[in-house]
Amino acid sequence: MSATPAKTIPAPRVKEALQRLKTNIGKVIRGKDAVIDQVLIALVAGGHLLLEDLPGLGKTTLAYCLARSIDCQFSRIQFTSDLLPSDILGVSIYDEQRKEFVFKKGPLFANIVLADEINRTTPKTQSSLLEVMDRGKVSIDGQTFSVGAPFMVFATQNPVDYEGTFPLPESQMDRFLMRLQMGYPEFAHEMAILQSATSRRSYDLLDLEPVATRDEILEIQQYTPEVYVEDSVIEYILKIVAATRTEAEFQAGISTRGSLALKLAAQAAALCDGRAFVIPADVIQVVKPVCVHRLGLRRAAADSFEERRVADGLLTQIIDRIPQPV
């Protein structure tokens, strides 16, 4: 049998703290509770997010509201074709007074980093994020620097406009714990948005107060790997992963990194729900956001929306035919 957690997890207190975050973000991001839930799951798991949707649906605002609610440092990087790795990571500059090179940190050294339109920069610049997304550290000129803690890359991209873009390689996609989409707001919620909007304001002028500290989030993130996962639930996760590897429509199935991500996301989902143990419903809640972007199709799709729709349908079939543990 799987070992029980080594430490006592105050699950109800964690749930209360995360509910405060959800409520605070929901003051600005109207009618998107399910998306906010997934964002918080990624945060609790210590993972990174790829938010893929059309412009103007609140992707940037969501990232800013998350950072503002936690009282942590927020940084926005606008990705363009001429962006260099040093523009993101930082650069060593010779200091005349000290007679030595001094490292000047780039915008990546923050807690919540918005990588806006990440697919508009070159593969060389994209690859500069691989190490920091994996280890939370940056290696430059033989030195290693740690970025902020907690650390989360909140990347966005337009799934329809491909002109002047560079598709993210599989190695980059695999670093994102989840891929989400905002979607259009429902009529009633958009009506409320229009009624409350007295002027066109920048997201950084939003009146939003912090409801959690960085230390609280770091403490919650430490609890996540300790959430108990019974052997039958682990077997359920592996059956889903194994089924993606034998599905003829997929170029390749979920990797071991992906199966570990699925387990961690399920643990985070349980913790967000106030439990110190995982149930099959937690796995089902996160399986698509965690897995769909890791599953490429053998046949070309018209665009990212179509690819996601087909992969989502195939994954639904896999979930439906694998019995849940009791």
What does this structure look like?
α11 packs across α12. A hairpin with a 4-residue loop joins β3 and β4. It is built from 13 helices and nine strands. The N terminus is likely disordered. The radius of gyration is 20 Å and the shape is globular. By secondary structure, it is of the alpha/beta class. It has a single domain, classed as Rossmann fold (3-Layer(aba) Sandwich), CATH 3.40.50.300. It starts with 10 loop residues before the first helix and ends in a 5-residue tail after the last helix. The protein has a five-stranded parallel sheet with strand order 2-5-8-1-9.
Structural class: alpha/beta
Look up the CATH topology: Rossmann fold
Regarding quaternary structure, how should these chains be classified?
single chain
Number of strands: 9
Number of helices: 13
Euclidean distance between termini CA atoms: 16 Å
* Percent strand: 5-15%
Order of helices and strands: HHEHEHEEEHHEEEHEHHHHHH
Question: What characteristic shape results from the CA principal axes?
Answer: globular
The figure for the number of domains is 1
Q: What is the CATH class designation?
A: Alpha Beta
User: Which CATH architecture would you pick?
Assistant: 3-Layer(aba) Sandwich
Provide the gyration radius in Å. 20 Å
Question: What is the percent of helical residues?
Answer: 40-55%
**On the 0-100 scale, what is the average pLDDT?**
88
Query: Any low-confidence stretches, pLDDT <50, length ≥5?
Result: 1-6
Strand order of the largest sheet: 2-5-8-1-9
Looking at this structure, what is the CATH superfamily? P-loop containing nucleotide triphosphate hydrolases
Largest sheet: 5 strands, parallel
